[in-house]
């Protein structure tokens, strides 16, 4: 790859394989990574209390404008690629989104039933906005309007079933070459992981690559209190899934 560096904004909701995807890109020698740079700004603006709340607030800028300037600024280490792991729910309505138009935006999706069941294992209270599906559709529409076509969309299960094929398709969609290094990595924590890693990253810290998928849990597995959220999220998810890369 030659020319200006490419800043990749990968937009995911929580309880997806977003950290494993970050590992895959960090395994490339040409790629820097950033882990959820708007997390502290999101917590500061909402007043929500998450695990390790004070540590998160102290670890990053709480000013979304300053974070936007940072992610649009110089690429760490002068690398050709900068993979930024972003959570869709962190993009609150009052946050400026102009910086997003300078990114190569891509979207990582997972069925809402599976997200909800995984999320409540870590945090009991959840809303549709907190799993980020409405915001993911908004961000997709913004990127599609700018490009005049759908930006790259991949599903987590497709990555786990066929890592090489799905990541190759993603790289083509981003206009970069696929690197075999993306398929494996050393276990353990990274200096690039957010300070919240002890609360959320136990599985990925043990991983050395993309594990085969487990059977995805379905709507009937949900407790009754979560079923309305899954029903509301399903058409949003399906709208994005229509654009999945082959």
From TrEMBL:
Pfam families for this protein: Sulfotransfer_5
Top-rank taxon, per record: Bacteria
GO terms for MF: hydrolase activity
Keywords on record: Amino-acid biosynthesis, Branched-chain amino acid biosynthesis, Hydrolase
Any one of the GO BP annotations: branched-chain amino acid biosynthetic process
InterPro entries with a match to the protein in the record: Class-IV_PLP-Dep_Aminotrnsfr, P-loop_NTPase
The family this protein is said to belong to: Belongs to the class-IV pyridoxal-phosphate-dependent aminotransferase family.
The protein, known as: HAD family hydrolase
Organism of derivation: Lichenibacterium minor
